[in-house]
């Protein structure tokens, strides 16, 4: 692995584990066993590292979910979207946990973030329209847009919201599945009987995933 890639990989792990505000370039260099000068040869500061991590996130987002690809059925399409979106949120969780502060410091990064959010919204609207055409959602175009915006807000702010609920909140994978369940709970009352059956099935699936992750989190703490 090239040194530049090693720096990105190490920074991502440290940011996720300790929080981006608590990690400096010196911490990253020490973790890799390289000099700060060697790190600065590749990245002029921490913000440049964060930009590179976000570029990687945006690329992973583009590859993880393509709504134009055929799915087995309508339910599978939504599950694929949720799995792709929230798995990336977990992999890059530091960014969502410190989102307002990071974007406030860097206008260029905020533009990148807004572009990525637009792609997420486009993908989500494709799914909601697919549900509407299948007769699983009975909403007007404006209604679909409003629901899509609400779901995007839940997804984009979920980790930050959970982090703010109590001091020293530990964000583990189970927290991500709670976000998935929250999105499905919002959709459930808006669907037809057929759609409700599918949503209920997905909620049961993710509830099982949540229980597994909660057990793992307790084992880790013990």
UniProtKB/TrEMBL annotation:
Q: Name one Pfam family in it.
A: TetR_N
Keywords (A to Z) from UniProt:
DNA-binding
Under the heading InterPro entries, the entry gives: Homeodomain-like_sf, HTH-type_Tx_Regulator, HTH_TetR, TetR
**Has UniProt tagged this entry with the keyword DNA-binding?**
yes
Q: Where is the HTH tetR-type domain?
A: 1-61
DNA-binding region, residues: 24-43
Query: What is this protein identified as?
Result: TetR family transcriptional regulator
Native species of this protein?
A: Salinivibrio costicola subsp. alcaliphilus
